[in-house]
Every structure is written in structure tokens, then in C-alpha cells.
Amino acid sequence: MRFLTVPPVVLHLFLLLFLASPATACTKQEKRNLLQFLAGLSQDGGLAASWRDNGTDCCEWEGVVCNGDGAVAEVSLGSKGLEGRISPSLADLTSLLHVNLSYNSFSGGLPPELMFSGSIIVLDVSFSRLNGPLPELPYLVTTDRPLQVLNISSNQFSSEFPSATWKVMKNLIALNASNNSFTGHIPSSLCIGLPSLALLDLCYNQLSGDIPNTLGNCSKLKVLKAGNNHISGILPVEIFHATSLEYLSFPNNGGLQGELDGAHIVKLNNLLTLDLGGNSFSGTIPESIGQLRRLEELHLGSNNMSGELPSTMSNCTNLKTIDLKINNFSGNLGKVNFATLPNLKTLDLMKNNLSGIIPESIYSCSNLTALRLSINHFHGEISTRIGNLKHLSFLSLTENSFTNITKVLHALQSCRSISVLLIGKNFMNEAMPPDETIDGFQNLQYLAVHHCSLTGRIPIWLSKLTNLKILDLFNNRLTGPIPSWINSLNHLFHLDVSNNSLTGEIPITLMQMTMFKSDKAGIYSDPSLLDLGLLIYAADPSKLQYRINSARAKELNLGNNKFTGVIPQEIGQLKALLYLNLSSNNFYGEIPQSIGNLTDLQKLDLSNNHLTGEIPAALEILHFLSEFNISNNNLEGPIPTKGQLSTFQASSFNGNPKLCGSLLINHCDSVEAPPISIISAKQCSNKVTFAIAFGVFFGVGVLYDQLVLFRYFG
Ligand SMILES: *[C@@H]1O[C@H](CO)[C@@H](O)[C@H](O)[C@H]1NC(C)=O
Ligand SMILES: *[C@@H]1O[C@H](CO)[C@@H](O)[C@H](O)[C@H]1NC(C)=O
Ligand SMILES: *[C@@H]1O[C@H](CO)[C@@H](O)[C@H](O)[C@H]1NC(C)=O
Ligand SMILES: *[C@@H]1O[C@H](CO)[C@@H](O)[C@H](O)[C@H]1NC(C)=O
Ligand SMILES: *[C@@H]1O[C@H](CO)[C@@H](O)[C@H](O)[C@H]1NC(C)=O
Ligand SMILES: *[C@@H]1O[C@H](CO)[C@@H](O)[C@H](O)[C@H]1NC(C)=O
Ligand SMILES: *[C@@H]1O[C@H](CO)[C@@H](O)[C@H](O)[C@H]1NC(C)=O
Ligand SMILES: *[C@@H]1O[C@H](CO)[C@@H](O)[C@H](O)[C@H]1NC(C)=O
Ligand SMILES: *[C@@H]1O[C@H](CO)[C@@H](O)[C@H](O)[C@H]1NC(C)=O
Ligand SMILES: *[C@@H]1O[C@H](CO)[C@@H](O)[C@H](O)[C@H]1NC(C)=O
Ligand SMILES: *[C@@H]1O[C@H](CO)[C@@H](O)[C@H](O)[C@H]1NC(C)=O
Ligand SMILES: *[C@@H]1O[C@H](CO)[C@@H](O)[C@H](O)[C@H]1NC(C)=O
């Protein structure tokens, strides 16, 4: 702690000596300190080219800025590709005010000399791979440090979050410690020690315990973020004394609970963002929310809240985002006048208990880009005024009781931006609009019209959706063939038409689908930025999990229809398929050898058809297969004893009277049985290892399946 033991008087004299001299170049000592820092690096990112001790003024060195007196005041070396250790020698630069070492790849920790420097006011070491504990307060340091901005975010610090450190940081204005692995509690002394604190970001750590009520003593606090930790308990009343707060954000802690007290929340009338999603809050949205006139973002999703949405929400005229998904809100939306919310971009009410019709006022929100009303009890027709929503890119109406699909689709044609349209589980027993007058949807990537019992054929207007990537038409009553234009959908990588009454043979054009043949990843983008998560209902319904997932398996599902004919040899071209389901149709003939070419296949279901002949040996090489079903056909001969097929249960093969194998009642007679191979001890142990590995894999798989009771895209 050299710098700490120098008495200030000596320091002053020292400084005066240099300031008195007319030279405005940096001192030898400063050069030495900088070169010492350079020496600590194992990778200097080319810095050595300008940091040279050959008589140049170090004020001219890359990333070094001097003050008017020629003393080093700033070291800015962000994104320079630096590796190695941060030398404490920087702290010996007595005029140094700003240090920016962000976006490098250091090893080791942050030297305490820098953090407790007597001069530095801004220290940014974010995104720099620093690890270990954050320096503890050295016991020699007793006076206040000048540090105002400390950004240690996005490193790998892993200690208990320090509490003593902040006692000497009275000048600290911004502290960003997010995205590390800090443990322990939010220190209760934090706001006692930091009267100037305006920004505190602790999110993405491992913090636990309660929110200390002393946070309310940070009277200057504008930004408070501590999401994605394990913090529990209630929002202490005192926190509402921090009336400067603009961002109050504690999402995804899981355990925060209690009700939002209307009398308290109004005190935070500067709030722009209230984010308490992903917790266990209960009760209603208080009427007084209408007094938060500046509010732009309201996130209360994934809690246990209930009651009606208060009419006063209409008074929060700056609202851009309303996220109330996965709660138990009820009643209809009629009380809220959405027409007074012209800035609204995202309205997410997924999975609540809401009912009634969609209020007309919603269609006045012309900036709306994402509207999710899925899994509620809404009914009635969607007004043609929905066509006014020119920016709408995401619309989900899934699982309500809406009627008149023709009207919805006609109205939505004028929403040119729409890219995700999910309207399944509505429109029961209506007819698929057949007409060619439906035009538009040029940007549609994902269309889901499943579980509607729709009649009619696969309509020709779908052929114009040239950007379509995912098409879900399962669980309807569609008839007729798969149209031959199907291969004009060049981006389609997921086609599910299962559980309909489709007829005819597999068209040869289906075997030419670009995305089923290509390695290009099956990803759709969701421009609304609404995380179209895969909703996973765990066995314990209070622990809903929400996964961001914009990639889906390449899948062709024709199961449970009335298709006929043979499975074309050309199916071997669809090399990129992960799931192939042709089950419960009237396919006959042999299983083509070429299916062995679908080497990425994870699920193959050919059950309940009239397939004949032997199981192709080529199937043995499908190493990724985890689900396989050829039951209830007329297959014959032995079940292959090698490769992946030998690992499936009898149920995968049952109902083929002429099939034989050790699994089945029907053992192969010795004549046909493959010769018994004499395996060495080594091979034998390999097999045992494989069996155990498989058992573990399969065991986990089963457990997972039990956990996932049902899942769908909202
Ligand atoms: C010092 O090195 C720099 C960079 O290589 C060079 O541009 C400069 O001319 C050198 N100065 C002297 C005095 O040698
Ligand atoms: C540090 O530099 C990075 C760019 O490399 C910049 O984004 C960041 O704002 C700087 N930090 C401070 C505190 O100015
Ligand atoms: C670190 O945080 C400070 C204060 O919030 C900010 O000015 C700076 O830009 C941040 N650095 C980076 C690299 O984002
Ligand atoms: C804190 O830093 C992270 C990056 O590490 C950044 O994403 C976040 O916005 C910062 N917090 C605040 C409040 O500026
Ligand atoms: C967290 O930090 C890692 C590097 O440690 C970085 O790659 C990642 O983008 C950061 N995440 C956020 C949310 O800032
Ligand atoms: C913290 O705030 C409370 C009121 O919320 C006050 O009673 C207490 O004295 C404050 N503590 C300090 C140390 O300022
Ligand atoms: C959800 O809230 C209801 C009251 O509205 C309560 O009975 C129930 O226990 C709460 N559930 C959880 C998981 O907190
Ligand atoms: C909105 O605020 C005004 C006062 O500014 C009040 O008269 C009106 O009743 C409020 N509206 C609602 C719906 O609460
Ligand atoms: C949701 O609220 C309704 C009342 O509107 C209540 O009957 C029901 O039990 C609640 N469901 C849950 C899961 O709390
Ligand atoms: C839509 O948002 C923009 C800013 O993104 C704003 O200028 C405009 O006024 C909004 N539209 C309406 C109808 O308020
Ligand atoms: C659906 O809406 C259209 C257009 O408003 C209307 O002409 C038609 O009669 C409606 N269909 C049904 C079944 O109500
Ligand atoms: C697999 O594909 C290759 C060409 O990619 C072809 O030569 C081979 O015959 C195919 N195998 C089967 C079993 O169809």
C-alpha cells in the first residue's frame, strides 16, 4: 500500500515540485508506472509500439490522456485485446482520474490499489474476465475515496458481496456489479455509506436474503436493479422513501412476495420502469397506479396476481410495455381505455383468467407491435379495425374462444409487418378460408392454426407466404392432398399437418423442400422482441418455467391422416430432418433403405401403417435416434441386433406378427439368428459402459418427460 502510507503533505510537495516546473510533458515516474503496467501484460494488443521509453512524451502514448499540467489523467484502454494481469502501478499515477480497461481479457483480480485509489473517480473494468473476490477494504484506508463510478459488471467475481468496502465510498454515484457470481446479501449498510448513489445494478448474481429496508435511505437513487438473483421476502415499506427512483427492477428472483400497496407505490411518482416479473407477488394492481404518470414499462408477469385491471391504467399515458402474463387476472378489459395509451408497443396478457370481448380501444394503439392474448377466455370476433395496427409483428390469440377466422385473416392482411401469427385453439369447426383473395402476410414466418377442427383443404393462399418457416395445422379436419406447390415455401423447416383427414400420396415436391435438405439452422426471428418462450409446466404448477427458444427442430409430421402409397425412396434427401412422423396412415410397401441417410434423425415414427418387408439394416446407423416406432405394420424378419435399434423396447416393434427378436414373443429361430460372436473382455466392458450411459441418458429423458406435462408456444 505504498500510496496509502505517503502523508498528504509530502504528496503535495511532490506535486508542487513538478507543477512548478514549466515542462508539460509527463514525468519519468509516470512513464515508469505506465511501463510497469505494460510489463504486467502477456498480450499488449500492440500497445508497445507507442508506449516506448525513447524520449517521447507519454501524454502522446495510445490511450493516455494528460491534463493541462502534463500529468496523466486518463488511461483508456477499452477493447485493446489486453491479456495478463492488471498491475497496481497505475494507482501510483497521482493525477489519474479516469481508468477504462473494459472489454479486455485479463486474468486475476482487481488490484485494491485501483479500487481504493486516492485520485481515481471513474473505474471501468467491465467485461474484462476478472475473477476472485472483490478487494476487501484495506484496514489502512479510513478516509473517503474520490471514486464516483465503479463498473465491475460482466466479470467473474465470485466472493460474498462486500459490505465494509462501501464505508469509504461516500462519493460513489454509480455501482454496476451485475453479471458476476457474487453471493451473500445486499449489505444493509449500503445506503448508509453511499449517500450519493444514483445507480445500483446487482442483477445476474447469486445474491440471496431479504431486500434491506435501508435501501430507502438512498434518497438520490434513480436506478435500482437486482433481478435474476435469489432474493426473497417482501418489498420493504422503506424502499418507497427512495422517491427519486426511475427504475425499480427485481425480476426473476422467484421468491419475492406480498402485495403492491397502492398507498406506497404512488410515492414513486418518477418511476419509468417497474419490473417485478418472475416472483410470487399476489393481490391486485392498485388503483393508484394511474398516478404514476411517467410509467413506461410495467412488468408483473409470472406472479400470482389477480383481480381486474384497474381503469386508472388508462392514465399512465406513457406506457410502452404492459406485461402481465402468467397470473390470475380476471374480468374483462372493458374498464381500461387503451385509446389513451398511444405509445403502447407491447401488451402481453398471456395465461390469465380474462374474459369478454377485445375492447375496440385496443385498435387505437397504432404503435402496437406485439399483442399476446393467448390462454384466456376471450370470445367474439376480432374487429376489422385490427388492420389499423400497421406495426403489429406478433399476434397470439391462441386458446380462447374467438370466432370467424375468415374475418380475422382478411383484416390482418393489411398488417404488413406481421411475422408471427398464432391463432390455434379458436374458431372451432369453422372452415379454412379457401379463397385466393387473401393476400399479404409477406413477412409471416410462423403461422399456427392448430386445434381448430377446421374443415376444407390446405388453402392456396399459403403458397404466397414465401417467408414462412413454421406451419402448424395439426388437429383440424382438413381434407384433400398436400398441394404440390409446397416446395415453393423455400424457408419452411417445420411442417406439422398431423391429425387431419388429408389424403393422397406423398407429393414428390415435398421431398424437395429446401430447408429439409439443407444444413442451415432452423431459426425464426421474432422482431417484436417478445420472448416467445417455450412454456414449460413443471410437475409443481407453481414453478412455471419460461424458456427463450427461437430455434425449433426441423420436423415433418404427417401422422394420423389418410395418406396412402409407398414412402418415396427420395425421402433420403431430407437429410436435415430431426423428427419424421408418418404414423397412422395407409402407407404400404417397404421402408426405404434411404431413411438410413437421415443421419440427424432423433424421432422416427412409422407405426400403424401397412408397411411390409424387413427392417432395413441401414437404420442401424441412425445414432441420434431416441424415439423409434414401427409397431402395428406387417414387417417381417429379425430386429437388427446392432446399433441404435437394439436399444428400443418391445413396444417399438409390437404388432408385427412376422417380426422376430429376443425382445418379442416371437424369437428368431436359430437358423436365421445371427452368428453368436465371441467378444473379448474389452468389447464386453465397452458394451456395459454403453448400456450404463444409455440408461442414464434414457432415465433423464423419462424424468424430463414426466416433468413436462404439456408445453406449447403461446
Ligand atoms: C520513439 O518511438 C516511436 C514509435 O516507434 C517513433 O515514432 C519515434 O520517432 C521515436 N522517438 C525517438 C525520439 O526516437
Ligand atoms: C469505457 O470504454 C467503453 C468502450 O471501450 C465505453 O463503452 C464505456 O462507456 C467507457 N466507460 C466509461 C465509464 O466511460
Ligand atoms: C460502466 O458503467 C458506467 C456507469 O454506468 C458507464 O458509464 C459505462 O459506459 C459502463 N461501461 C460499459 C463498457 O458499458
Ligand atoms: C450494467 O452493466 C451491464 C453490462 O455488464 C449492462 O448491460 C447494464 O445495462 C448496466 N446497468 C445499468 C443500470 O446501466
Ligand atoms: C455477462 O458476462 C459475459 C462475460 O463474462 C458476457 O459474455 C455476457 O454477454 C454478459 N451478459 C450480460 C447480460 O451482460
Ligand atoms: C434511514 O431512513 C430512515 C427513514 O426511512 C430514517 O429513520 C433513518 O434515520 C435513516 N438512517 C440514516 C442512517 O440516515
Ligand atoms: C396465489 O394467490 C392465492 C390468493 O389469490 C393464494 O390462495 C395462493 O396460495 C397463492 N399461490 C401461491 C403459489 O402463492
Ligand atoms: C385520470 O386522471 C384525471 C385527473 O388528471 C382524473 O380526473 C381521471 O378520473 C383519471 N382517470 C382515471 C381513469 O382514473
Ligand atoms: C383465480 O381467480 C379466481 C377468481 O377470479 C379463483 O376462483 C381461482 O381459484 C384463482 N386461481 C388460482 C390458481 O389462484
Ligand atoms: C408511435 O411512437 C413514436 C415513437 O416511437 C411516436 O413518435 C408516435 O407519436 C407514436 N404514435 C402515436 C400514434 O402516438
Ligand atoms: C364473418 O365475418 C364476415 C365479415 O364481417 C361476415 O361476412 C361473415 O358473415 C362472418 N361469418 C360468420 C360465420 O359469422
Ligand atoms: C445416401 O445418399 C448417397 C448420396 O448422398 C447415395 O449415394 C446413397 O445411395 C444413399 N444411401 C441410401 C441408403 O439411399
TrEMBL record:
<dbReference type="Pfam" id="PF13855">
    <property type="entry name" value="LRR_8"/>
</dbReference>
<feature type="signal peptide">
    <location>
        <begin position="1"/>
        <end position="25"/>
    </location>
</feature>
<dbReference type="InterPro" id="IPR053211">
    <property type="entry name" value="DNA_repair-toleration"/>
</dbReference>
<keyword id="KW-0732">Signal</keyword>
<keyword id="KW-0812">Transmembrane</keyword>
<dbReference type="InterPro" id="IPR013210">
    <property type="entry name" value="LRR_N_plant-typ"/>
</dbReference>
<keyword id="KW-1003">Cell membrane</keyword>
<dbReference type="Pfam" id="PF00560">
    <property type="entry name" value="LRR_1"/>
</dbReference>
<feature type="transmembrane region" description="Helical">
    <location>
        <begin position="688"/>
        <end position="710"/>
    </location>
</feature>
<keyword id="KW-0677">Repeat</keyword>
<keyword id="KW-1133">Transmembrane helix</keyword>
<dbReference type="InterPro" id="IPR032675">
    <property type="entry name" value="LRR_dom_sf"/>
</dbReference>
<comment type="similarity">
    <text>Belongs to the RLP family.</text>
</comment>
<keyword id="KW-0472">Membrane</keyword>
<dbReference type="GO" id="GO:0005886">
    <property type="term" value="C:plasma membrane"/>
</dbReference>
<dbReference type="InterPro" id="IPR001611">
    <property type="entry name" value="Leu-rich_rpt"/>
</dbReference>
<keyword id="KW-0675">Receptor</keyword>
<keyword id="KW-0325">Glycoprotein</keyword>
<dbReference type="GO" id="GO:0051606">
    <property type="term" value="P:detection of stimulus"/>
</dbReference>
<keyword id="KW-0433">Leucine-rich repeat</keyword>
<dbReference type="Pfam" id="PF08263">
    <property type="entry name" value="LRRNT_2"/>
</dbReference>
<dbReference type="InterPro" id="IPR003591">
    <property type="entry name" value="Leu-rich_rpt_typical-subtyp"/>
</dbReference>
<protein>
    <recommendedName>
        <fullName>Leucine-rich repeat-containing N-terminal plant-type domain-containing protein</fullName>
    </recommendedName>
</protein>
<feature type="domain" description="Leucine-rich repeat-containing N-terminal plant-type">
    <location>
        <begin position="29"/>
        <end position="67"/>
    </location>
</feature>
